Amino acid sequence: MTDIVMTEDIAFPSPPARPRVRWAGIVWGLAFATLAIAGIVLTRSSDAYGGLIEWVTAISIPTLVATALLSAGLAVLIAGIAGMLRHAQRSLAARRATGPGADPVGETAARHTT
Fold this sequence. Notes:
By secondary structure, the chain is mainly alpha-helical.
């Protein structure tokens, strides 16, 4: 005689997800820290500060427009790098969640016993 026994898989709680890294904060923080260091270097003495003032007052309109466009491009580049890092982090997390070790939970299996 063959008995069919229906069993249910036991679902073990998955470990809590690791906190995400906030890449935008890291990348923008590095960019602003770089700007701060450049500002300190350019104004570290009164002679350097005076030279910076003279250089800024001598800027022409085409140079100012080019600098503005370069600054906007740099902001887009930094935002793109932060976006790529965030996308890579999310796709890695998705691959880990659906990797080879992931088992479907809650399915009912039928076992035959003799």
